Amino acid sequence: MSPASRNGVLSGEFFMLGDIACAEGAICAGCRFFAGYPITPATEVAQRMSERLPLVGGIYIQMEDEMASMNAVLGASWAGVKAMTATSGPGFSLMMENLGLGVMMETPCVLVNVQRGGPSTGLPTLVGQGDMMQARWGSHGDYAIIALSPSSPQELFDLTIHAFNLSETYRAPVLVMTDAEVGHMTEKVVIPPVEEIEVIGRRKPTVPPEEYLPYRVEPGELVPPMAVAGEGYRIHTTGLTHDERGYPATADDTAQWPLVQRLVDKIEKNKDKIIMLEEDGLDDAEVAVVSYGIAARTAIWPVQMARQEGIRVGMLRLVTVWPFPDEEIRDLAGRVEGIVVPEINLGQIVREVERCAAGRTEVLSVPHPGGGIHDPQAVLRAIRRAAGRKAEA
Amino acid sequence: MELKTDGYRLDRTLETHAEAEGLRGEIHGRHPMDDLLRTDRLPHIWCPGCGLGTALTCFLSALLRSGLDLDKVAVVSGIGCTGRVAGYVRLDSFHTTHGRAIPFATGLKLGNPELKVVVFSGDGDLVTIGGNHFIHAARRNMDMTVICVNNFNYGMTGGQAGATTPVGGITTTSPYGNYEYPFSISALAAASGAVYVARWTVLHARRLERSIVEALLKPGFSLVEVIAPCPTGFGRRNRLRQGLDAMHYYHEHGVIQHGADPVKTDIELEGPVIEGKFVDGEKPTFLEQYRRQLDRLRGA
Fold first, then answer.
1. pLDDT tens per residue, range A109-126
2. Angle at the Cα of B129 (from B124 to B135), degrees rounded to 5?
């Protein structure tokens, strides 16, 4: 390991494992607390954090399970520290209840899911993207969530930093939905100089404790400033439906409406600022491939092949999967003759694409149950079908 | 204000809250503990005869006596009747999910080691659903004081059996008598490595308060188990109909035995309640161990 700068940023060019790039991204973002539990294929994130955090003034703790990990992360965030955990399918399931607590208490933190094949123990060492709907709806009740999907170790590094910035900006848990391929892929990763890395912190209250209401937002705002433990504000927060004081208000729906609506609105009404998409060759496209993560990366070759065959095909890569880019997909559906959606599950995000396309164009799923990446030929065949070409042998 | 003769109403609307607020001011003025309470949240939800009020009062007096900086004290609760404590104290306070107060508190403490972190929750929360976190925090000697109010049942959900219900105890889910062996919370803590373990009934309030002071000032994982009546959920089905009946029971069956072997502190139905300070030791805390290993690395 080359010497890190004073604030822990390991600037330079590396040949680096995705999971390790994720850990380095967290350290660049100012993460100084990691609580986790070993699970393939996310273990290397924890290992790297256990090695790095003590050297930069942070704390690594291996908890007794993923429920504990998620809670410890929330606790650390309420102590004022940027905090993260990393897991995979089974652990992600165990974190769901307390992901909801994080949403309800409006706790900035980052949860990385290095997805593997499921359901249940499934395929521990092999890739999957079957947790995408769980990412959206996995905790009970209504809420909105931000989920990012990197396609390379470099992007896993970049998006981990960005996930922290989003979580601090919107006071919400942010999910990095990567997968076993990207997490276990070793590639070139460039860690920029410290001054080139944008790091955002949470907004603090500017009023004295006696005037501070922890869940009060000013008119026109959706995210309340956050005081943490030990600052003299004597805050109270709860997983129960609460009023502006943070006090339980469970007798009827008077507090439920404004609270839950705001929790959803602060994400949904900031979609323009949150959603990141990558477009390639969509201007004159007759067919669009809509994909994310490693599945989008394996779609690059079939897109190129189809173009050589004369099919005008473009690609829309969802860097942000949640909140979903409804308008962009709706707009795309009005311009193309077909949309092809490869993903390593039996059809999750394709349902969202169908919803937005609303029958205006044909939507073709290219499913894969997990355990490997797509056969590029399968994607190519779907592109041909979408373009109205006869399937070729 | 019209009050029913039994002294409480099931239907407490916001109006009666406001009325109660006014009445309280009129009747007895401010309570000495009011500065430590979120008085705008009172009256509390606890039933007449419940031991939680006493446990909370003992905690607050202990807190004042401990001399700790109250801006640096954080209280974390889980779910349940005892779990509501976090909502009543005018301190940094966190009402978390069922069973998970301890890991949340672990994050708080490690995120800001200057904090004195207190977990205040019930037996069902801490040693049934949250039992794994309880033993692991004790094993790590994580720096926190756990106050566990043990009323032998799940009160808030209507008196169900849990991991502390004595054999034979009648609850709404053990209508013919509980057939599972219970945990002794104190024994569990001691066996898992807690450096301070004490148990008191709410009858022994002064002793309880003194133990909480000691626990608050003890570095590492300290446990104070508080035996408390739950007339609504447990007592009325087990020959302790009123809170007062339980207090008589504690008076007659409480056996103060400092230094008792925690393994021999099981609480049986209609048996003695062994109480006292069982463990008072010292060993480096989690953070001291963490720093010790790092210092070794730096020295090398």
1. 999 999 999 999 999 999
2. 95
